[in-house]
């Protein structure tokens, strides 16, 4: 009989998103993909969930421990107050490492610092530049991102371009760990019949309908094009919004607003069967909607930004348009007149998903960070 003491499990608490298994945005998707893989590798994972969003509140799902914390339910305060309460709870817990997402939670690192808890934060995109955060909101996000570099033990960015920006703006080193993708070669084509669509009879936009994703630019440019195909817009916002109302009031038979598509098989079929996928996201790093487009074999037409250039390997896996309607009209005309080139983009899209975007590799990198932090403790 061996007298060796069993090695204790690594305990990681994750906070800053909506929770698990709630999948609404990029952070929620990452927590699901990463949390499940960490759990399978023997890590004790706790995820903090936004209490108001969960009707049922099981203590465990798929081996992941869930803690439901409250928030002040006001649009601008919900996320921050939820993270604040979650951070306090995590600091009083037996977690070895606390992993936080969203640079808005940067200041809360001072709490974990006081408690001596090792922490990592994934800071995501250039939040302070997003149009929805005007004035004070923009200033807060810039300051919060700077505080993240002061109070957290490890800052994580999801792209090389974001790493460069953090070094330039905040003189702060960060580790690059991208989001992963789940490639799929086929889908159930009958799923798109509910919208009366056929394979390659439409272009696609997927994302929250907020100004920084530029759906307005793409739609207004598309309406001026001569394409006979539909433009399918998947996404919405969970509140009353004049920007969205204005988009939906544009009269053109080619426009189809689906609202949210929560069924993952329907969403996969929409991606997989589109003629081209429009990506107008402007301020993020590695974008999950773009990764899905690559994973599902789309011909990608993307806004020309350093982030999109990085993801599409400087034009190897997609074409770019500028931030004006004329450029959108031109890229539609190009796509319509060169079906063979569009087919080549679709056929080679998945080859752009290098090791960097493999979820198992992403999990390896996070586990390395968490073990290093736990050992420092």
UniProtKB/TrEMBL annotation:
Give yes or no: UniProt keyword Transferase.
Answer: yes
Q: Which Pfam family is an annotated match for this chain, by its short name?
A: Glyco_transf_4
> Which part of the chain is the Glycosyltransferase subfamily 4-like N-terminal domain?
24-178
The molecular function terms of the Gene Ontology recorded here are:
glycosyltransferase activity
Instruction: Indicate yes or no for the key word Transport.
Output: no
**InterPro entries, sorted:** Glyco_trans_1, Glyco_trans_4-like_N
Q: Where is the Glycosyl transferase family domain?
A: 193-350
Q: Which keywords does this Swiss-Prot/TrEMBL entry list?
A: Glycosyltransferase, Transferase
Instruction: Please state what class of enzyme this protein is.
Output: transferase
Q: Which Gene3D superfamilies match?
A: Glycogen Phosphorylase B
- Its EC number is 2.4.-.-
**What protein name is recorded for this chain?**
Glycosyltransferase
Q: State the organism named in the record.
A: Belliella alkalica
């Amino acid at each position: 009989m061996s007298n060796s003491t069993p090695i204790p499990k690594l305990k990681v608490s994750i906070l800053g998103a909506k929770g698990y298994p709630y999948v609404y945005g990029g952070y929620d998707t990452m927590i699901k993909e990463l949390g499940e893989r960490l759990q399978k590798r023997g890590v004790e994972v706790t995820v903090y969930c936004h209490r108001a969003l969960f009707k049922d509140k099981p203590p465990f799902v798929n081996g992941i421990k869930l803690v439901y914390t409250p928030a002040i339910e006001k649009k601008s305060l919900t996320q921050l107050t939820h993270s604040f309460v979650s951070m306090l709870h995590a600091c009083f817990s037996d977690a070895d490492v606390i992993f936080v997402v969203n640079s808005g939670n940067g200041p809360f690192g001072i709490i974990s610092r006081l408690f001596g808890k090792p922490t990592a934060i994934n800071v995501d995109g250039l939040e302070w530049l997003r149009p929805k955060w005007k004035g004070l909101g923009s200033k807060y996000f810039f300051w919060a991102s700077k505080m993240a570099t002061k109070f957290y033990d490890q800052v994580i960015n999801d792209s090389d371009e974001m790493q460069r920006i953090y070094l330039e703006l905040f003189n702060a080193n960060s580790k690059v760990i991208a989001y992963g993708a789940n490639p799929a070669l086929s889908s159930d084509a009958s799923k798109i019949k509910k919208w009366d669509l056929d394979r390659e009879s439409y272009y696609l936009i997927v994302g929250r309908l907020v100004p920084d994703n530029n759906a307005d630019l793409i739609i207004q440019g598309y309406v001026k094009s001569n394409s006979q195909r539909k433009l399918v817009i998947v996404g919405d916002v969970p509140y009353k919004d004049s920007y969205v109302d204005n988009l939906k009031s544009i009269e053109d038979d080619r426009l189809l607003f689906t609202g949210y598509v929560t069924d993952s098989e329907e969403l996969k079929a929409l991606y997989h069967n589109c003629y081209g996928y429009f990506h107008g996201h402007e301020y993020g790093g590695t974008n999950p909607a773009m990764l899905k487009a690559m994973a599902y074999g789309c011909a990608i037409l993307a806004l020309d930004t350093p982030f999109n250039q990085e993801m599409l390997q400087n034009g190897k896996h997609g074409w770019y348009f500028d931030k004006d309607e004329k450029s959108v009209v031109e890229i539609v005309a190009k796509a319509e007149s060169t079906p063979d080139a569009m087919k080549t983009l679709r056929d080679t899209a998945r080859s752009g998903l290098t090791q960097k975007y493999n979820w198992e590799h992403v999990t390896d990198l996070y586990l390395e960070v968490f073990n290093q932090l736990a050992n420092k403790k």
